[in-house]
Write a structure and sequence with these properties.
Layout: H1 10-26, H2 34-54, H3 59-85, H4 91-115
Pfam family, one: 23S_rRNA_IVP
Protein name: Four helix bundle protein
Organism: Novipirellula rosea
């Protein structure tokens, strides 16, 4: 089966792995909690924006979507902190998720720098 270009990106594969990891976290949190929906939407946004951005033709369009994916990853990190503060998950779980997010954010920053003339430094 033919792969789409975004499926070849390590950052996309890592973001899909994070969604799977996050699904296990979400199963332990009541859907009635605001952080459940927020974390679900933010984690889902990461691979969707990577895929959409990778399909754009201009560097600025690609960077805009990669920036959104990066913002969603940061939102996920904050959501994990909120879950710990509300005693919905253990700190060790949040730390595991943040480790995955750090890798994703680093790769996204690399993609942004590779696609942006004004953000090479």
């Amino acid at each position: 089966m033919r792969q789409f270009d975004h499926e070849k990106l390590n950052v996309y594969q890592s973001s899909i792995s994070f969604v799977a990891w996050g699904t296990d976290i979400l199963e332990s949190i009541p859907k009635s909690r605001a952080v459940h929906s927020q974390f679900d939407r933010a984690s889902t946004s990461i691979p969707l924006n990577i895929a959409e951005g990778n399909g754009k033709f201009t560097d600025s369009d690609r960077c805009r979507y990669f920036d959104i994916a990066r913002g969603s990853a940061l939102e996920c990190a904050a959501s994990l902190d909120v879950m710990v503060a509300k005693r919905l998950i253990e700190k060790s779980s949040a730390d595991e998720g943040k480790s995955l997010l750090n890798e994703i954010i680093s790769m996204l920053v690399g993609l942004i720098r590779a696609n942006s003339t004004e953000r090479k430094h």
